[in-house]
Amino acid sequence: MLVLLAAFTTLRFGELAALRRRDIDLEGLTVTVRRAQAELQDGRLFDKAPKSAAGVRSVSFPAELLDAVTQHLEHFAAASRDGHLFVGPQGGQLRRSNFRDDWVKARKAAGVTDELHFHDLRHTGNTLASTVGASTRELMTRMGHSSSRAALIYQHMTSDRDRAIADRLGAMIRDGGGGASG
Q: Domain 1-126+135-144 belongs to what architecture?
């Protein structure tokens, strides 16, 4: 569930680790980011405000994930309304250092290259969102960015998208709206 939400909501690891049950709206299909987990050098975890005011946000997730989110809440999340959405095997808070071993193991089991980092799911999700038509402003809101410069880093051109752009331009020409002449 952590990987699915990372890819389809584009939340940062610290934002995902800080999520509570009350941050999930099953009817509205949203995840609300109110805080982000941070770790001190001595290993203590604490929640802090997101990087900027734009970081406090609600992000929609696809309806196709509803069953998986519901099942995760029923079987894996901490019990109380304020319980963490993601916990370790003994019920403790999710830690980046402990998660890394699980990430490497899952990545290898899926046959995915060693070069794929967890944060790359944020790039993937935002590339997918832009491919289905999200504007830079919409991406900024989903990512919790206050500047377009930061959002543009996460927009990657894909060959499929390039083909779709060319096909739509061709349709404009065929329909007489492209301004191209004989």
A: Orthogonal Bundle (1.10)
User: Do residues 20 and 73 lie in contact, with contact meaning Cβ atoms separated by under 8 Å?
Assistant: no
Taking CB atoms within 8 Å and a gap of at least 24, the contacts of 14-18 are 14/38, 14/96, 15/50, 15/55, 15/144, 16/85, 16/86, 16/94, 17/84, 17/86, 17/93, 17/94, 17/95, 17/96, 18/47, 18/84
Kindly report the pTM of this predicted structure: 0.83
Which residues are tagged catalytic? 12, 119, 122, 145, 154
C-alpha of 145 from chain center: 13
- Is the pLDDT score of 155 beyond 50? yes
**51-90 pLDDT, tens digit each:** 788 999 999 999 999 999 999 999 999 999 999 999 988 8
Distance (Å, whole) CA 95 – CA 109: 21
